[in-house]
Structures are given as C-alpha cells and as structure tokens.
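Here is one chain, start to finish.
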Amino acid sequence: MNITSLQDNDIHWADYVFISAMYIQKESVDKVLAKCVKLHTKVVAGGPLFTQEYSCYPQIEHFILNEAEITMPLFLSDLQKNNPLRLYQTEKYADMKSTPAPDFHLLSINEYASMNIQISRGCPFSCDFCEITSLLGHQVRIKTPRQVIQELEMLYSLNWRGPISIVDDNLIGNRKEVKNSILPAIAEWMRAHRYPFSFSAQTSINLADDRELLILMAEAGFTSTFIGIESPDERSLEECHKVQNRNRDMLQSVQRIQKAGLHVSAGFIVGFDSDSPSVFQRQVDFIQKSGIVSAMVGLLNAPKHTKLYNQMKAQDRLTFELNGNNTDMTTNFVPKMGLKNLQEGYHHIIYSIYSTKPYYKRVRKLILGYNRKIEHRSKISFSLFRAFLKSILIIGLLNKGRREYWKLVIWTLFNRPAAIYDAITYTVYGYHFRKVYGIQD
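Its structure:
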C-alpha cells in the first residue's frame, strides 16, 4: 500500500489478510478493515497499534501481538491444526539472532525510493513521552553481522542501488556491538562492492561523543542520522527524562556529527509543562544556527503506555485518544500554557524555519559545515537527472521562491560546487515542506 491503492482483487483470492500498523495509520487501518468485512475475508493483525489497542478492534479474527518471532509460530501451529486462537501475546522479547531475513523478492523494488532493514530492537533510554521501551524493552537486542550482510547481499542481488534506511529506534543503543562488529562488517562489504548503497539511521545525540564511531559510520556508507533533540531548554529535557541530551552543548554536538560526514535531521517538541513563551523563538534560533534542514517540529502528545500518559491521566488532563500525528496542531492533553498559545507558538516556529529565505539560509549553513566523506553511486542517473530538471521547472521557474532557488544554486556552485547535488535535493525538500504546511511566500 506504499506504492499502490488496495483493490478488491487484491483480497478476493486470499484466505486471510495480514495487517500491521502504527498509530499514524489508524485511518488507513479502518478503511482496510471495512473492505475486508465487506468481502468476508478474515484478518490477522499485529504490530505496534494492535499490540496496544487490540481490544478496540472486535471485527478482527486473530491477533499476533508483540514480536512475531515468538507469537507467529504459535499461530501457524494452531492454524495447521485448524484451531487458531483469537489472541497470541507474550511478555518475552525475541532473540534477534533468530530473526529471518525479509523476502525482498516480493517487493516491486523499482517502485521504491528507499529500502529498509532492521539491525536491532530496544532502547536503553526511557523518555517519558516514548512508548518504545514498553513495546520493545530497555535491553538492546541485535542481529549478527552475518545476518546484516545477508540482507545487503539480497538487496544487491535484486539490483537495488541507492538509499537504505536502518529502521532501528536507536542504532547505537548497543554501541559496543555496533562499533566492534556490525559497522566494520558493513564497511568491508561496502568497499568490496564499491559503495552501492547509502545508509540513514536514527541515533541518540551521544553519537557526537564518539569520534571513532562517527568515522566508522562514514566509512560504512552512512550519510545521515535522525536525532531526537526535542528542546534547547534544560528544564524541558529534565521534565521528560531525556538524560542523553542534558548538560551538553547540543549545537556543538550537531556540528560535530555534520563535520564527520553525516547530515542531521531532528525531532523537536513544544508543549512541556516547563515551557515558557520564549521557547518558540529559542527553537527557531537553534534550528537556524544548527543547519538542520529537516526539522520535524511537533506538539507534545502522550501515547498510551508511557509515563507521560499515566501522569496526564492521574492529573485528569487527557482530552482524546492519540491519532499518532504530532504535526497537526493537536495534543491529547490540556497544556499548561493553554492550547491557543501553544498553537500560535508552533505556527511561529513552522513559518520561521520553512519560509523560503530562512530555509535557504539554513541550507547554506549546512553546506558550509557538512563534510561529505564518500561519494556514493546513484541508483538511476536518468531518474536523478529528470528530478533535477523538474526542480528547475517547478521551483526555479514557476514557484514564487524562484529567486532564492537560483541564489542558492549559484552560491553553491561558487562556494561548494561538490555539494550541488545536496543543494538541489534540499530545494526539493523545502518545496515539499512549504506545500505540507501551506506556506505561501
């Protein structure tokens, strides 16, 4: 469903429809379930949404909850005996060393812009607003280097060339194992295959503290990382127990990662009880100074099974069930500063960082500070060339911000010509952000 719309013919032949989803996909889930009910096709559901909300879906026949390495074999065994239960769940955590490789052959691989692989599960931290540890635990479980290389080999054999996202919630949660075995194995494989892939990941900001780890990531082909920065306010970080971000110069940490050869995209949150009206401009200032081009700013929300949710429930401040979207200007609890003030401050941040002039200023900041280590081969050069031409037509000629577009292109050619690919890529990002947020300038 990432690349096509679901049709009745996709379901007619099936004995069961298997569905997995996260909170953000609840609306899509409802549509799929309605279609399955209409066609009298049984549904088997699992994944984060159903693990936490299975009681809300009486129309689903079977639930395979928690981690499928444990619960899926139980279901299949009972199904073979023609006596499957409705609910399969476990309090145990799966051994990642027994996780099978995905069958990438089933994908229409040429229809995708990026592939995904998973190396580990779990997170050593315990942020109040995050449900990761309630789902996957504190102990970081990790695949073997052999498993990881096997998945890379499978993608390579299918002629995939291009971006691969490491979908772990925190790639460096088990820093010792990643540093000593996983990254060296990936780096060796990438060198032997002339760097056919580029990797992105999610990491905690303490990545900046380990120079050797940064070098290894760049050598292995990592070009970007997403980091939950959340807030430049120490009181807010203390409030949500974001211990890994406290007592550090976060601006310096971001710049250290950029200089090591990794783009930094980041998450930011407003709406903590300790936030004052000054936090909105402080967020803007930090984002602009950091050169973080892709800044995902959202209002604080309280997912179920988190410390924050329990706190808001105890204080009788919950307002409605979470929809999984923290960028739609809603929050599922009553904020201390008042919802109107919070929404106005949020709008100020978005307009201040994604309007044309400040956005392109931030791109220049990144280009000057970013130090690309390895040139990676592109997947399809004609596709990239076509995208470049489209960016010229739509952003450089038809869009209102075309003057800033050309100023950036010319500035890059004169100051950092090797970064022109990145510059053009970020003009497209900026156009996308302005469209999403409805910014006209």
